[in-house]
């Protein structure tokens, strides 16, 4: 019992205070805790990771899975209350030195950040289940490396126009690839949002798609009528129902499709391979255009960002609604959108002075749909 108490207190000043009190009382720890139900047995990392892996979301499991497997490999048979913060730091440095070097590698900093986050996730469940105390959480006392600024940026009009042209005229399924890139360019959605789309997430009459993205966020995002019809027709031709985006054989696409697209583009455009351009650059491009032409509040809603922000309290008062997002989308594509029409007519609310002004010209990089 005394050893169990020591483990739960995590040592240090708290344990010394208990020992001092027991000595003053002239009793043993066994006498003090006689009749008290023993605490739960502390699991090993192998056992604990197996349980936590089944409790987290799929996205969390995908990001942290690599690091959890490494922890099991090194510490699988150790109890989770045994490693110290220094041991965690040593393992982090080992992972950093042995990380797979890629063209976009940043010295293993991201690997260390994800490893520490993976450890904190494990211990957060241990604390919640009462396996260890908050003060005994060793991962909480290991600092993450400072995150470097992202190298992603908005693409120029010529760059993106060239990308769209090559995608529409090459590869083994240009129709699918053109629709996929157009979806990202119109909605600025993340890759996971596109892959999660189901047929029921497409509102053909309202020209909307329901996006489910990281953080379990869900929102309806306006798309052009042309894209809405193309998505519906693609799904009808390749397998009605289920995942919206599919190959010709009816199989749903995966993340590998994105790899194929950008590897193919990198062979035609060397700057894409050199700068490691990815789908997320399309998000930067669209949101930059929306912010420059419609302001921060609408760009924030367009991106699907939640109410939390480091930009200050003002963001509470500059929230945009789906009608304003539709107006920006309509200007981006050069097509009328049902929700934008309601905003312009005053059906939704009284027309504002800025609503009567001329909309900015659609960007040249979007152009006519290539599908």
TrEMBL record:
The keyword Chaperone does not apply. The keyword DNA-binding applies. It comes from Micromonospora parastrephiae. CDD domains: DNA_BRE_C. Keywords: DNA recombination, DNA-binding. Residues 350-371 are annotated as: Disordered. Residues 150-330 form the Tyr recombinase domain. This is Site-specific integrase. SUPFAM superfamilies: DNA breaking-rejoining enzymes. It comes from the Bacteria. Belongs to the 'phage' integrase family.
């Amino acid at each position: 019992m005394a050893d169990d108490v020591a483990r739960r207190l995590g040592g240090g000043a708290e344990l010394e205070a208990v020992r001092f009190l027991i000595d003053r009382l002239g009793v043993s720890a066994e006498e003090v805790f006689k009749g008290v139900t023993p605490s739960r047995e502390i699991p090993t990392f192998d056992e604990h990771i197996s349980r936590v892996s089944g409790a987290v979301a799929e996205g969390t499991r995908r990001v942290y899975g690599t690091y959890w497997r490494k922890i099991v490999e090194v510490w699988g048979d150790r109890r989770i209350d045994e490693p110290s913060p220094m041991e965690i730091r040593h393992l982090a440095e080992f992972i950093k030195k042995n990380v797979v070097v890629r063209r976009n590698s940043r010295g293993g900093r991201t690997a260390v950040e994800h490893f520490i986050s993976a450890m904190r996730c494990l211990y957060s469940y241990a604390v919640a289940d009462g396996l260890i105390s908050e003060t005994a959480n060793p991962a909480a006392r290991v600092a993450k490396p400072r995150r470097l600024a992202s190298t992603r940026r908005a693409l120029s009009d010529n760059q993106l126009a060239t990308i769209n042209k090559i995608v529409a005229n090459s590869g083994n399924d240009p129709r699918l690839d053109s629709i996929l890139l157009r979806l990202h360019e119109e909605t600025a959605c993340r890759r996971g949002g596109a892959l999660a789309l189901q047929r029921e997430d497409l509102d053909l009459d309202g020209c909307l798609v329901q996006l489910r993205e990281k953080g379990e966020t869900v929102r309806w995002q306006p798309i052009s009528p042309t894209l809405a019809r193309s998505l519906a027709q693609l799904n009808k031709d390749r397998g009605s129902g289920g995942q919206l985006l599919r190959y010709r054989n009816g199989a749903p696409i995966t993340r590998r499709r994105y790899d194929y697209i950008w590897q193919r583009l990198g062979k035609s455009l060397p700057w894409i391979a050199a700068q490691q351009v990815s789908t997320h650059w399309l998000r930067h491009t669209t949101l930059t255009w929306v912010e420059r032409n419609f302001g921060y509040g609408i760009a924030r809603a367009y991106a699907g960002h939640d109410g939390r922000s480091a930009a200050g309290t003002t963001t509470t008062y500059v929230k945009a609604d789906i009608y304003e997002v539709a107006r920006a989308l309509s200007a981006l594509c050069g097509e009328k959108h049902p929700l934008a029409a309601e905003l312009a007519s005053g059906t939704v609310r009284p027309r504002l002075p800025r609503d009567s002004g001329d909309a900015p010209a659609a960007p040249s990089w979007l152009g006519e749909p290539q599908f």
